[in-house]
Amino acid sequence: MRYHACLQNLSHEDLLQIAASGMRECRATRILGDAMLASKLPEQLAAAVLLSQDLIAPVLSSLPLTDLRTARVCHLWRDAWHEKMLLPLGQLRHLRSVGEFGYATQVVAMPGREAVLVPNYEQHRLDVLCSQPAAFEEQLCAPDIDDGEVVETLRTPSAVALMADGLAWVVESDRYSVVKVDLEEKLRLHEIERSQLGDGAFPEDVAIADDALLVLSQRNGETTDHCVSVFSASTGEFQHSFGGWGKGRSELFLPTSMAVHGESVYVADRGNHRVQVFRHADGMHVRSIGLDAAVTEELWEDMLDWGVEYEGEDPRIGADLGEFDHPFGVAVGHGRLYVSEYEGARVQVLTLEGEPLHVFASPDGKPLGGICTSGEQVWVVGEHDDPNQVHILTIRE
């Protein structure tokens, strides 16, 4: 058996490079791609791999549409390539990457505007990015200079929840607190201190649900305070909490972000590699989205020792649609659930019930942070770094 006649316009080495390059971008076939190059597979086996119907989809899904050489490699790929071009409703494509932020992790849509707000941790301010044209627009709560002294309204902001009256609740990472601010007047109005979230708690994200403020917190490597605390959005008075630490059905481990939709709140349960859905009014657990796999107590204890840096085998990590590898961001928009993965380096699009629709690889192949929707666009934070960018994705109708 030799290559199909349609493949013979390219050399054996070129065909191996094409197949391997596509497979490397797809986590499920990355090892196979490297092994293919290392072992210099004979034509018979390489041809079987290239023409395999099981491999066409993951290879094509990871290759850019502009790679016409690959599109023309084999007529047997033509139908699959055509399907890729006819993107279904809601599938994403990359427009551009913008900004230079200092360790940004979250992004939030600004209601009534085609713009987003990025908490700029390093610069102690909130940056506004508009979508048309995609560029920096303004700064909110930026530090002032008074008699040669730097006056800061915010200190290391990392997440923000906007309210309708020009106010916002902002997570101050280094202070382990959540502060209510007047964005126009640059005034600090109220502060929820760390002790109100739980001993040693680290606030990760905030959201507004009706008249309630939801605060998502964790304690890295510890076994307490992995939960959602509910406060009054107007007064900051504590009401109740839900979630709790663990690997059980309604528990959380190292959660990183959340999104409110109607009565539900979706939580990126990063350490458990799933998305948890709760009813925010009473904390009732609704469902878990992700790979349902058992974790032994021995493995769980090992994970606790390492926390988010754990690098061993975890049966809950998956590369297929509807499975996650350290989900970091969650957003609801256009009747869909968007989940960005840190280690998985991709955005998954699912129904609100968790049925997978499609997947979009990270534009630069690097880890992804928080995510939000604004108009017909999806904004997702790039790898945590200084500086890092925000990727703008658009939805094809």
UniProtKB/TrEMBL annotation:
Any GO BP annotation: protein polyubiquitination
MF terms in GO: ubiquitin protein ligase activity; zinc ion binding
Spans of repeat NHL: 239-281
PROSITE patterns assigned: NHL
Annotated keywords: Repeat
Pfam family, one: SSL_N
Name of the protein in question: F-box domain-containing protein
